[in-house]
């Protein structure tokens, strides 16, 4: 994991990876829910991917999506370095297209879904991910507080608007139970939404 962070920073990728405490939270949630199939949207350099791949059983898999080739290639190297290549299936390409391909291929539903990609598309990602879930699936949506800007209806930033719609969509669905948790730490003032598919 430290190598993944080091390589990410060495390549001057944005420091958008989860913190160590958030990585451990993902790991604990995956183990608590006994998840074997994990879907990740946005792998960056593979740091969160490694946390989740270490949490699943030997016969489990993390399917991780990344739109940018340079990040996909570095994540592949970092996951190989961690010895977890047999537990991870990396897919390069726009997440919407990759998700649709999984849906069209009638992929087996996922037990745990981590949404941490471009925020303006969060509402669309949610709709597609629900087609790849089953009753009992846990969905973790990261970076949903945005320094409290979700409450500022005057803020028209596409990231804020995308997350705001994501939260609203979670709230009106009769098939989902959701909560949002605010966090303060090395990642600043942010938080995540945790969803249970009924």
Distance between the termini: 33 Å
Strand ordering within the main sheet: 3-2-1-4-5-7-6
Strand content: 15-25%
**Cα-atom Rg, whole angstroms?**
16 Å
Largest sheet: 7 strands, mixed
The overall strand count is 7
Name the average pLDDT.
91
Low-confidence stretches: none
What is the succession of H and E elements? HHEHEHEHEHEHEE
Structural class: alpha/beta
Summarize the amount of helix as a percent range.
25-40%
Describe the structure.
It is globular and about 45 Å long. It has helices spanning 2-10, 20-32, 47-55, 69-81, 95-104, 122-130, 158-172; strands spanning 37-41, 61-66, 88-92, 112-115, 138-142, 176-185, 188-197. It has seven helices and seven strands; from the N terminus they run ααβαβαβαβαβαββ. The protein has a seven-stranded mixed β-sheet, sandwiched between helices. The chain has 198 residues and is α/β, with parallel strands linked by helices. The protein is 39% helix and 23% strand.
Structural features:
23% strand, seven-stranded mixed beta sheet, 198 residues, globular, alpha/beta, 7 helices
Structure at a glance:
This protein is an alpha/beta fold and about 200 residues long.
SSE blueprint and pairings:
Layout: H1 2-10, H2 20-32, E1 37-41, H3 47-55, E2 61-66, H4 69-81, E3 88-92, H5 95-104, E4 112-115, H6 122-130, E5 138-142, H7 158-172, E6 176-185, E7 188-197
Parallel strand pairs: 1-2, 1-4, 2-3, 4-5
Antiparallel strand pairs: 5-7, 6-7
Helix pairs in contact: 1-4, 2-3, 5-6, 6-7
